[in-house]
């Protein structure tokens, strides 16, 4: 059977082609949508290009100005944060709500701390608070410059295969992610993403009022364990902590309408999608 998620993503990509911009010597990809409304910067995790947020972009592009980025093939957290500040300036986005997921959540935290003049609001999603000890854990424990790319991709495949076995209802999501890691994300970009966390800096202090900070987590996230989720909340002290009772590490794909509703809330837009109910937690 055709994969409906991949088909929907591909239809979106055909309408919203990824543009390219060289910033400080690094070539970024980005999808730009919407002409007016609050500015939203979306940063994916290791296994996504900017268009992995296609469902949120389609739902919000008539009411917000959105830029979703794809990482370059070089650089790391510090360089990327500066690049994003410059990219936003070139696109005429003076202040943005920045949402990053996983690797993107770590970068979003660094960006908001280092460039507070560019960050209107921070949403740190399914992410970590520190890179301490990450170099000892696969795949980061590999020689990321020289390990065969097939090995690295196979490691992701094994993890995704376990998720498919335990969550067969998300098989289409797993296939979409396997396509990303299998080649839609080129080798140099994939290596750069892994090295960005392995060699990442500790996060600097964040000087944003807590009413402009939110976190997102999933109770069944296989990559961000409960103690790490608690540490992210403790560090950021968010005014709102959203928790998906299910959705894994990619709730923006697995539960798009609910994810869009929290973005609407954070951007101050009227909600047109599924509302948060008793089965989910929104803590203030």
UniProtKB/TrEMBL annotation:
InterPro entries for this protein: AB_hydrolase_1 (IPR000073), AB_hydrolase_fold (IPR029058), Maspardin (IPR026151)
Hydrolase as UniProt keyword: yes
PANTHER family: ACID CLUSTER PROTEIN 33, MASPARDIN
Location in the cell: Cytoplasm
Phosphoprotein is among the record's keywords: no
Any single Pfam family the record assigns to this protein: Abhydrolase_6
The protein's name: Maspardin
Predominant cellular place of this UniProt entry's protein: cytoplasm
Top-level division of the source organism's lineage: Bacteria
Key words of the record: Cytoplasm, Hydrolase
Domain AB hydrolase-1 stretches: 40-258
MF-aspect GO terms: hydrolase activity
Gene3D superfamilies linked: alpha/beta hydrolase (3.40.50.1820)
